[in-house]
Amino acid sequence: MIQGQIMVSDTEEEPSDSTGRTKRRRTYAWRKRDLAKNLKIEEHYSVDEAMIPYYGRHGCKQHIKGKPIRYGFKAWVGATRLGYVLWMEPYQGAKTMCNPIYKELGLGASVVLTFCDVLISRGFDLPYHVVFDNFFTGTPLLEEITKKGLRCTGTVRENRTSSCPLITSKLLKKKERGAVDYRTTHDNTFIIAKWHDNNIFSIASNAVGINPKQSAKRFSQSEKRNIVIEEPHIVSIYNKYMGGVDRSDENISHYRIGIRGKKWYMPLLTHMIDLAEHNAWQLYKINHGKLDHLGFRRRVAIALIESNRKNAKRGPSRPSHHEHADSRKDQMNHLVIPQSKQTRCRQCHKKCLTRCKKCDVGVCVKCFETYHS
């Protein structure tokens, strides 16, 4: 799991059976882990579903038509705009681990509210802004998020607008492209609007409204050219911050681990590794790193291989320029030890009688600090 990990606790005794033996049963406790402790605080987050490819047989396997990955395990994911995954919960039907107090609001609302609790648990009393699509959105969800002091925006299905007196889609479609109709609650808590784009769709929010409107470029099929229409501010916010989960899925799919196996849990385990590497790359970019995803993934692989390889015979060949490019700078367990034969120092290339125990290369005492910094 990405949200936490299962830990085996002390066993409990059950009543003895007819043979007089006492049965012992393992109990499990759920321990949450904070994945966002290394992430800078952001305002906007998105919640959406993600697919983990799997083509075998399992009760939790899903088929979603029209998705890039049609068959596999479905998971609920909360991510930032650039795709850093903060929270993930595999879909298990009625046994999906969401907060039971939200069960009456439905599955979609329970997923969003559980993610909101994760944001609140970070310890910062901030008005986070959560964006989601029409699978989750409904007026009860907007009311619950408002009570929590958070903000939200999401597309909504027409049968979930609590009979909001908006213009019908048929009449709105007769108006010019870019036309909008909206209604607000009496206390201006949230707004529900309809917008005419390629099609008519509804959107709701408790944070932003229609104004200020912005210009959006669209292709007109009738005029066979690009035209400029007015886009409401609520739609601009949704389009800007909704794609975080899809962006993480796209980045992971480019270099997904390809291990063929018959065990149902192998795709989940390899996806966790891919997801951890992707999050590390996102943090690397936030700190102004210049490597692309493939280059970063290659550097991680090289560092792992160098840190866990067996000692080989040293030859007279010239060392690679990228040797220990990352592991030598991690400042962990680098110790100066003596060696019986003289070798060339990796830094100054003079003869030396000392080496680094972890890097297993000759380094003189004078150059030891420079080589590892």
What characterizes the major β-sheet? 9 strands, mixed
Q: What is the general shape?
A: elongated
**Would you count the extended β strands for me?**
18
Portion of residues in beta strands equals 25-35%
What level of helicity do the residues show? 10-25%
Sequence stretches where pLDDT stays below 50 over 5 or more residues: 1-33
Radius of gyration: 27 Å
* Head-to-tail CA distance between termini: 35 Å
Encode the helix/strand succession as letters. Answer: EEEEEEEEHEHEHEEEEEHHHHEEEH
Task: Specify the structural class.
Answer: alpha+beta
What is the count of DSSP helices, taking H or I runs of 4+ residues?
8
Averaging pLDDT over every residue, what do you get?
Answer: 83
Characterise the protein shown here.
- This protein is of the alpha+beta class and 373 residues long.
- It contains 8 helices and 18 strands.
- The strands form 5 sheets. Strands 5, 6, 7, 8, 9, 10, 11, 12 and 13 form a 9-stranded mixed sheet that branches.
- Mean pLDDT is 83; it is low at 1-33.
Question: What's this, in brief?
Answer:
By secondary structure, the chain is of the alpha+beta class. Helices cover 24% and strands 27% of the residues.
